[in-house]
Amino acid sequence: MSTHRLAFVFPIIGNLTNAGILKRELFLEDRRHINTDSDSEILLNVFAHELLKSNHLSLRPDDVFNAVQGVHKRCMGAYAAVMMIANLGIVAFRDRYGIRPLVYGVKETPEGLQYMVASESVALDVLGYQLVRDVAPGEAIYIDEKGQFHNQLCATESMHTPCIFEYVYFARPDTIFEGQVIHEVRQRLGRMLAREAPTAADVVVGVPDSATPAAIGYSLESGIPFTEGLTKNRYIGRTFIQPDDQLRKEGVRIKYNPLEANLKGKRVVLIDDSIVRGNTAGPLVQLIRDGGAKEVHVRVSSPPVTNPCFMGIDMATKKELIGANAEIEDIRQRIGADSLAYLSLAGMLEAVTAGIRQQTGHCAACFSGEYPIPIPEWLFRDERDQEKLVFEEMWG
């Protein structure tokens, strides 16, 4: 293999917490130049370097699994990766903690059984594949050029701590994750929220689309009718992951419009799935008031986000998180709501795990501060300090 040139296509979700160290190692020891700041390029080069250690003339499953073992030994962080090696097959693997999601499915065809790997089960559905299961933490899958399926656990001391924010916000509502339909879990979150934070109101409105199932759950549990109060422009992307605050605020006005007929003169319970920076909650409350609402009571189907994420979600520093820097009453005043309440951490965990047969753990570090993986201390600093320390980490 060392004399062969390999061509890769390599999508990845997640983040590496030791990217700077790896970049330095790849350059100084492995003689590989990294052209971008992308963690994907770093992880790809680590895998390629490990794969080329094989002395076999053709690619064997053991070569792939040994390379993935090398990735797990060198790469710290959260990642789910799928790659195509030109003319040799498809490789997929998940980090040892299972933080980022990865599933695979099958489809019967006249040519035989075909396999597909994706981050969400809905991708399988639209192409006619049947979901088989989640890829296990630390597991690797190799589908060779003949269509033969191979798999192996490649990480020692693997743990099952998938990201709980997939349930709260990220995953599509029709996705099946850990054997649960996301929509059903979000309804349970809404029901739990209604028990923990009831209020007198005329209608329940969800922020579309991710908070709609929780709003339905809140309505079912409380007996307050659910109605649409905001229409959504579905051609606008997620405001949560816009690169700066001003774009997030402007995005709310472009993305949503109030339904005055359903809001005028009403006491409204506005359900949102999370409040991260607090930049969209205020404009949303104002939109509901612009629609004629008499009162706006905000209920959030997750706890306050108080800690940064270093494992694939855009919450880089504690300084930008409103839940880490303000009390709930202060947040209520900032967003202009008549009342504000969050779901408790215990309530969220109970709602999420209620439908899981084999109880495991979850990464809820953004809410609890308890990280399942080692986090370098410098990552907790602000972005300017991070850039300086990344440089020092890389070049000593």
Overall residue-averaged pLDDT value: 89
Instruction: List how many beta strands DSSP finds.
Output: 17
Q: Approximately how much helix is present in the residues?
A: 25-40%
The shape, in one word, is elongated
- Number of alpha- plus pi-helical segments: 15
**Gyration radius over CA:** 23 Å
Please identify the structural class as seen in this structure. Answer: alpha+beta
At CATH level 3, the topology of the largest domain is Rossmann fold
Total number of domains: 2
Label the CATH architecture of the largest domain.
Answer: 3-Layer(aba) Sandwich
Task: Give an overview of the whole structure.
- The strands form five sheets. Strands 1, 2, 3, 4, 8 and 9 form a six-stranded antiparallel sheet that branches. Strands 12-15-16-17 form a four-stranded parallel sheet, sandwiched between helices. Strands 6-5-7 form a three-stranded antiparallel sheet.
- β8 and β9 form a beta hairpin.
- The chain is α+β, with helices and mostly antiparallel strands.
- The chain starts with 7 loop residues before the first strand and ends with a helix.
- It has two domains: 146 residues, Aminohydrolase, N-terminal nucleophile (Ntn) domain (Glutamine Phosphoribosylpyrophosphate, subunit 1, domain 1, 4-Layer Sandwich); 177 residues, Rossmann fold (3-Layer(aba) Sandwich).
- The longest helix is centred in the middle third of the chain and has 15 residues.
- It has 15 helices and 17 strands.
- The model has no long low-confidence stretch (mean pLDDT 89).
- The protein is elongated and about 75 Å long.
